[in-house]
Amino acid sequence: SYFTKPGVGIGNVGLSKEDIKTSFLEKLFYSLGRIPVVATQNDFYISLALTIRDRVFRKYVKSLEQYAEEDARGVAYLSAEYLPGPHLGNNLLNLEIMEEIREALAELSLDLDELLNEEVEPGLGNGGLGRLASCYMDSLATLGIPSIAYGIRYEFGIFKQEIQNGWQVESTDKWLHNGNPWEVIRPEISFIVNFGGHTKHRRDDDNKLHIEWFPDSEIKGIAYDTPILGYQSTAIILRLWKAEATESFDFAAYNLGDYYRAVEKKMRSENITKVLYPNDENLSGKELRLKQQYFFVCCSLQDIIRLQLLQGRKLETLHEKFTIQLNDTHPSIAVAELMRLLLDEHHLEWEEAWKVTKNTFAYTNHTLLPEALEKWPVSLLRNLLPRHLEIIYEINSRFISEIREHDFTGEQISRMSLVDDRGEPTIRMAHLATVGSYKVNGVSALHSGLLQEQVLQDFAQLWPEKFTNVTNGVTHRRFLALSNPRLAALISEKIGKDWLTHLDKLKGLESFADEEDFRRKWMEVKLHNKKNLANHIKELTGITINPEMLIDVQVKRIHEYKRQHLKVLHILSLYLRIKKDKDTNIPPTAFVFGGKAAPGYFMAKRIIKLITAVGDLINNDPEVNEILKVVFLPNFSVKLAQLVYPGADLSEQISMAGKEASGTGNMKFALNGALTVGTLDGANVEIREEVGEENFFLFGLTTKEVENKKAEGYHPYKIYSENEKLKRVLDFLMSDELTNGDPELFRPVYDNLLNQDPYLLLEDYQSYVDQMENVYKVWQDPGKWARMSILNVANMGRFSSDRSIRDYCEKIWKVEAVKMQSE
Ligand code: 26Y
């Protein structure tokens, strides 16, 4: 081992307070050229980050050695999005040196919390899907699963959200502005990616067909590696690709002397990794987005092939050494690209190449929403990736011949085809991913069931054994141990620290749920976290909330199916009860919202304006603002999330049943002792099963009932006219008090709800309002609330991403953990 050679690879990377202090000052001096008296907080942060990165890399090299020694089978995770959150705190937690570092810094008159606050997080994703990928990296590393994660190094991540005059205003996220101490550029790991042009088919003397692609442009992808450390254990690499122009292309292709045009071309090719598309679950068929997808897939597959060949193995056995997980359809062009690489570059026969391909990939579906299912126009593919289009056609024609042999109707066959030619011909990427994979999974029990009954039902009939479920999970290390240290300490005091690696152990808390003293301590921790949240709310919005209030939170992307506006209707009903009915029976509540709207999503942006308008009205009305407060927290992020979940009493999970594939925020809230009010949607169903129905506030139609309601003809206007209280609330949306005399302001919301209401807000309204009354009844019994909160946490074991990753390993990947030998 490299580590056992005397004096080699060791360096000063000890974990003691003194070792760290020395390294930290050395980094400041030698890597930044600074001495403490002139250094900025950011200089100190960078020095600390570099100090810690050394320790993390040491763990990484060590794990790599072990994987190589065991010749282990491994996972490559392909995702267009990652939301890792701040690295520093998590790495300190996982190295178990938080307190030593705090002391070391204090001895240098520095404050760890201030340095932690300097970090700008990589916002390389939109929401749930990107955060899930990062939770899975945490668990892959912790469990010691040989793995590598690939993605795109967007120069600008998800936009920064500000609220101006109540509206969302977007600006660019310059996350690399102060440099990024966590990544290492790997100039030697770089690949060429081609685009455009045409193909030529020719037969050789043996009548063997040779196909050659003559692209008309090329771009280089360069690897940037960020180590992700697991708890007490190994590290894995997040490898993100940045696009650069190739030398040969930008200059040789142009007339000598035409320097500026050459440079312009160079800039254009570097555009590919400039910015993350800020749409989630809402398609915009942009050419650049397809270029991004192909770019990162092409680099990643070449890298995987490089690793396979480096180990002296043949490509015919690629699927034995690697499994490649597709995080939604965003990387699904990989199916065609792997075929191209095997056929055209490495000269395998079709049958052999197809066998390898379909035994290598597995596909996770994250949505049933038709508007989020990717379809690429054939014309676009023909221009950008002509060879891939040919391959897709060939896969399709062989697939269709195969299903013709089964009892499928003509209608089913055209439904299953990879090509949708009703209207402008498009390629259905979910079908490509399904045909090209050995396993397909949904992300909660309900969602996986619906996937097999709806979107992919014909495929499930054809290949029932291909379909499975892996319920999502979250890393309880970041979202409990790191972000809620007081609750973590209280838990460890009662049941020890095993829960950090075995979340099931939380079950041990159940027996303390009736202990008076434990309940008191539990609620003291919650109150402390609520004060902390209230302070941040004050700082970010200027709004004062009393920490004793019930803190009722909905944080997630803004989308009509998630029904933030249903929450607004409830708030308005309370407001009107206070103002009009002089009702004094409403417990003081702070309603907290957060989340971004896709910049082009009209309704979502209106909903933000609605929330802030209701907030302005309520927060400034002395008759109401002692009882109700409404806050919109701008720029929701992982960093903010870590502050919000610990301070929440109530978690809003109120999507229309059948629409939220899983949800993961629901798990993070419950893990921090918030109670849930929610529908039977996504993972809510399983959370309720685990915590017990008596510890969950359920309301609304079930998926089946939603289907029936829609089938029989849904008439929201009828509900409006028959429910007087609801009518009063809805009409208030058009009132001058709320709209300041602009009747158009919320008319789109009003009209939509009265006439279409595709997500059944009016249908579920009464049931929601009634269940909220029940919430208030329990809230007024603090002992009961505390008990329910403890029981929720005690039963969250199943929702650790460690369990999800173990499920993936067993049900899908057939990959095993590698045991680390101590140094
Ligand atoms: C195609 C493009 C417009 C697109 C871009 C991003 C489509 C979808 C997305 C992101 C989807 C997403 O975040 N889905 C969420 O995945 C979570 C993790 O599985 C689920 O918990 C959550 O219910 C689902 O909405």
How would you characterize this protein structure?
The chain has 34 helices and 22 strands. 48% of the residues lie in helices and 15% in strands. The strands form 5 sheets. A 9-stranded mixed sheet has the order 5-8-9-2-1-10-11-15-16, with helices on both faces. A 6-stranded parallel sheet has the order 19-18-17-20-21-22, sandwiched between helices. Strand 3 (160-164) and strand 4 form a beta hairpin. It is α/β, with parallel strands linked by helices.
Helix-strand layout with pairing:
Blueprint: H1 17-31, H2 41-70, E1 74-78, H3 87-95, H4 98-107, H5 112-118, H6 128-143, E2 147-152, E3 160-164, E4 167-171, E5 184-195, E6 198-203, E7 209-214, E8 217-229, E9 235-245, H7 247-252, H8 259-270, H9 287-310, H10 318-321, E10 322-327, H11 334-345, H12 350-360, E11 361-364, E12 375-377, H13 378-384, H14 386-404, H15 410-416, E13 419-420, E14 426-428, H16 429-435, E15 437-442, H17 445-453, H18 457-462, E16 467-469, H19 476-482, H20 485-495, H21 516-541, E17 550-555, H22 564-580, E18 589-594, H23 602-619, E19 628-633, H24 638-644, E20 650-653, H25 665-671, E21 675-678, H26 684-691, E22 697-698, H27 703-712, H28 716-722, H29 724-732, H30 736-739, H31 747-755, H32 761-779, H33 782-794, H34 801-813
Parallel strand pairs: 1-2, 1-10, 2-9, 10-11, 11-15, 15-16, 17-18, 17-20, 18-19, 20-21, 21-22
Antiparallel strand pairs: 3-4, 5-8, 6-7, 8-9, 12-14, 13-14
The structure holds ligand 26Y.
The ligands found in this model are: ligand 26Y
Strand ordering within the main sheet: 5-8-9-2-1-10-11-15-16
Question: Can you summarize the main beta sheet?
Answer: 9 strands, mixed
Cα(first) to Cα(last) distance is: 10 Å
Shape: globular
What is the alpha-carbon Rg in Å? 28 Å
CATH topology of the largest domain: Rossmann fold
Low-pLDDT sequence parts = none
Return the average pLDDT rounded to an integer.
95
Q: How would you name the CATH homologous superfamily of the largest domain? A: Glycogen Phosphorylase B
The total domain count is 2
InterPro entries: Glycg_phsphrylas, Glyco_trans_35, Pyridoxal_P_attach_site
Catalytic activity: [(1->4)-alpha-D-glucosyl](n) + phosphate = [(1->4)-alpha-D-glucosyl](n-1) + alpha-D-glucose 1-phosphate
EC number: 2.4.1.1
Keywords: Carbohydrate metabolism, Glycogen metabolism, Glycosyltransferase, Pyridoxal phosphate, Transferase
